[in-house]
Amino acid sequence: MDRDDVNQLSAGQFPHHSGPPLVRVNRLNHYFGEGEARNQVLTDNNLEVMPGEIVIMTGPSGSGKTTLLTLIGALRSVQEGGLDVLGRDLTKLSPPELVEVRRDIGFIFQAHNLFSSLSAYQNVCMSLQQHAWDPSALKARAEEVLTMLDLGHRIHYKPASLSGGQKQRVAIARALANRPKLILADEPTAALDEKSGRRVVELFQKLVREDGASIFIVTHDNRILDVADRIVNMVGGKIISNILVEESVALCLFLSKCEAFSSLRPAMLTKVAEQMRKEVFQPGANIIRQGEAGDRFYLIRRGLVDVIVDEGKPGEFRKILKEGDFFGEKALLTGEPRSATVRAREPVEAYTLDKAGFNESIAASDSFKQQIYKAYFQRQ
Amino acid sequence: MTLMRVPLAWRNLVHDKRRFAVSTAGIALAVLLMFVELGFWNALLDSATQLLRDLNADLVIISRARYAMIVSEPFSVRRLDQARAVPGVRMAFPVFIEEQRALWKNSESYNPDEPYRRNIRVVAFNPQFDALKNPEIKAQRRKLMLPGAVLIDRQSSEDFGKRHRGLIRELADQSVEIVGCFTQGPDFSADGNVVASDRTFAKLFGQSRYPGAVLDMADIGLIQLEEGADRAAILKSLRAMLPMDVQVLTRDDFVAVETRFWQQSTPIGFIFLCGLIMGIIVGMVICSQILSADVTDHLKEYATLKAIGYSNAAVMSVVLQQALLLCLTGFVPALGGAALSYAFLGATTRLPMDLTVGRIAFVFLLSAAMCIVAGLLAVQKVIKADPAEVF
Questions:
Q1: What is the distance in angstroms between the Cα of A17 and the nearest Cα belonging to chain B?
Q2: Mean pLDDT across B334-345
Q3: Is pTM, for the whole model, over 0.80?
Q4: Which residues of chain B neighbour A122 with C-beta distances below 8 Å?
Q5: Phi-psi region at A250: left, alpha or beta (left = phi > 0; alpha = psi -120 to 50)
């Protein structure tokens, strides 16, 4: 096979970090209630979160976001499907072992959930003391993390004498104190004004850069969407879209530069991008062969390819396509066999759109279809 | 289990000052209730046995028919002569007790036509012998050698009138002279105590008490052993030798038998026991209510603790620590209150209200047990707290 790997666009590796996924959700189902009252709240969910990703999960209320979050946080037992978190298979763990997993996760709750009888410092220590027992280390880290959140002057205040934003920052300090590799946050900015909310997300970004942590945020707050590396959208207990933002933006940018898609509005562009799947080709591999039936549209994400017409025959024609170029649409539009062979010159990442997706995109607008034809004929 | 650097239990307890004060007061009240009920219970038993505990004897002989001090079941003093023959017995002598016919006249009563008379307990022995350990009686027993001389318990009921040296009073229609006082206090069967010599006793009750010489029948026989004698062996040989009409007991067993009688065979013992049990139950209910309300208020925090990785055991230990701390903070004021109420009740009733270390420890253990049980009841809620609910 020429295709080494077939992935959904979103499942691609985030370029800045590497390693196995921190969270791997595999065909996960979940139900509430029993017998007659049994109600499926999660249906066939798949998701991978790589180290260093900020994942924002959106969706209407009751779409199962929080249920999924609590499952990932080892706060519920898995009923059906697979769930690996921080390298541990949660489906195989006993309740006491699930408790241990939780210690390695930083939780930020919507209602800060601080201990009202404890000072900010002691609240942070409640989390810290599970790992560090040495009092001086405990003190140093608690003060460090509170100072990092600009709470240095409020260390010994109790929650009742802190503002909403300060309380939420104490809660965040508590979650970050142990330098967890995975942070789960439910509406962390809901109770904050825009400025405080911005500070919190900037802090998340800093944490990702410095510690390589992954952060999983459930939110309705679209002011913070811009920090997301991956945006997951859930409806009715199912993940309906899962987008690596940077890749998606890059794709849209490429698509919009193509004459064919240049008239599409951004919303339509992202929809097209979302339907594309990533494929990886090794040097020398034929991506398409002249004379074959065409079933895909290709966009080159990385690497160079040779386009060869009538290879080895008189009148052989060669051309090099690079990042951002596309090919393969003619066979889709005309139904004719491939008019050229395309071969990878170096490792190539390409995004493909299948015939159905392509036709759907084109059918969205007659004028669009006309433009494609026009563009195609211009290139002849 | 995770140990805690942060004293969460203590912080939770004292966070709300008003609630802490109310909780502490509640527990203190429950503990004080136990102290007072236990005080009454002990006063009953202590007062009933204080004369017996005061007996200066290694072994005692009593009538086989005697099951408690409230009944009059004398035995022949010949048994004491027999006992004296046993090797190792240094001394054996009788103690005489009369209550039924010992009417003491209160000469200060306001109604001169009908002078106030009531029963007093007369304890008599040969003043040559050291029959009672009470130091005041010991010191004054020589004075009893005068005919008609008595020592009176200054703690006797006010109804008996004045009590000081030199007063002439009427006892069993005969004149007696108060030659001194001692301190003992009334109990549930007698309101006052008088100590006299055996001769005075014979003079007072000689005509009416028993056919034959009154001093031939003793109520309690005291046996003192020689230094280093084998008490168990002598007890055994006395039992073997003496006829079946008497029983031989150690002094401590004698006290134990009397205690058991009051505990088990009298309605008053049962009522006071009920009071003690009620005190514990009321305390447990108060304690449970306080802890349960506290746990309910902190349920979300406990669920959060579980969510951030604390085990059930760790969260339970927070609640139990809270229960024990509450027990401690409630116990201290309760102990102060108990000391005051014991002093007050002791002064008012003249019953022995002794706050001994053993009794303080006993009430403390009861309080701790009460708080732990209440804590365990409250812990059920914590176990059910769902960490997934905190999101």
A1: 27
A2: 94
A3: no
A4: 6, 8, 11
A5: alpha
